[in-house]
Amino acid sequence: MHGYIPFPNVSPEVFSITIGGYAFALRWYALAYITGLLIGWRIALGLIHAPRLWRADTAPMTARQIEDLMTWVILGVVLGGRVGYVLFYDLPYYTQNPLLIFKVWQGGMSFHGGFLGVALALVLYCRAQKIPLLSAADVAAVATPPGLMLGRIANFINAELWGMPSHMPWAVAFPGTAAQDCGPGWLTICTRHPSQLYEAGMEGLILGALLLWLAWRRGWLKYPGRLTGVFFAGYGLARFIVEFFRQADAQFITATDPAGNVIQFGALGGFSMGQVLSLPMIAIGLAIVWWTARRARV
Fold this sequence. Notes:
The mean pLDDT is 86. The chain has a domain at 5-27 and 148-297. Helix 6 packs antiparallel against helix 7 (195-216). Strand 2 and strand 3 (22-27) form a beta hairpin. 54% of the residues lie in helices and 8% in strands. The protein is built from 9 helices and 6 strands; from the N terminus they run E-E-E-H-H-H-H-H-H-E-H-H-E-E-H. The strands form 3 sheets. Strands 1-4 form a two-stranded parallel sheet. Strands 2-3 form a two-stranded antiparallel sheet. It has a two-stranded antiparallel sheet with strand order 5-6.
């Protein structure tokens, strides 16, 4: 048997209580959302309270506007994430079971849908408050990675969205019948890439550190939209790479080898849905960075 890492015995619930016969539980995933939003809010306030970082040494928003924007962002994340999952990942199922769309607590959120929801919330709020959209988007870009990192760690704790079967020494034996179903080629324990942690490191830690460095040390907030472009391209590239190690959703698995291992999956041309949705992000992000650099030279 190859070396591997046993899955840590961590409950998906932080704690649970029963009041009047009703059980209430705080799950790690919910805690990740809450903590990520709070950290993002503090990062945004830190940027706003440092006028030297901005063009003409003037922040584009007030602390009060940041707080009000948080409500819009939360709605964009939740509604956009859920609608995106339904449309991008399992529309036929939810068409037949429309009432399940509202059961968000049962799982099923899409980052790309949440991203579009937040983008729409930003546009609407900035128009209503007459705030420069690109500068507000830059604040959101720098504030987002901590939430992405915590969310992926919560995915790992929940033993969901695991990776492809792997014999690497850091592969993890995730619990559950589905996770352990790697096909007849695996006679004992099935181990998989901890792709959730790959994403936490690339989309959260590395991308977040890069954006903070560019904002605080390189003065990129003085070029509206540039950090937004870096976020688009950085997230898209990280997600595209990690998808090669991540197990496809069941509805997208299209082929297996004789041993039962997945050898092809995808929504389009062999690419996964995550990769299909990430390619436009990479292209748009690079275009925005190029556009801001061109404007700076004019």
